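Hey, quick one: can you model this chain's 3D structure?
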Amino acid sequence: MNNFRKQIILLLFLFGIVLWPRAGKSEYRVFQYLVKSRYFIPRDNRPYIVTSTFNPVTYLAYHGGESSLKIELLRSWMCLGNTAGKKYCNPPRKIQQLSPQNL
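Sure thing. Here's the predicted structure for all 103 residues.
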């Protein structure tokens, strides 16, 4: 009887492992930055827009730190659902600010 109980527990455990990924929801945050080099480069020193999944601290650390880049966070948004192997999702439309007149 004890061996049968172990087999049932093992079967339930394996069944749970198979169903676990289907129950989970994935999501990630996308950040959009205005990036400018802190180095003087005569040919092209214009700021440019970057879209990344790195948060501001990680982005700076990965790309040389505050001594080499200046970044300004423009916006961020969440991408929900199954995002495996996909490009970044589109940002949501602007939400209209409510004013006392609109209420």
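One thing worth noting: The chain is about 30% helix and 25% strand.
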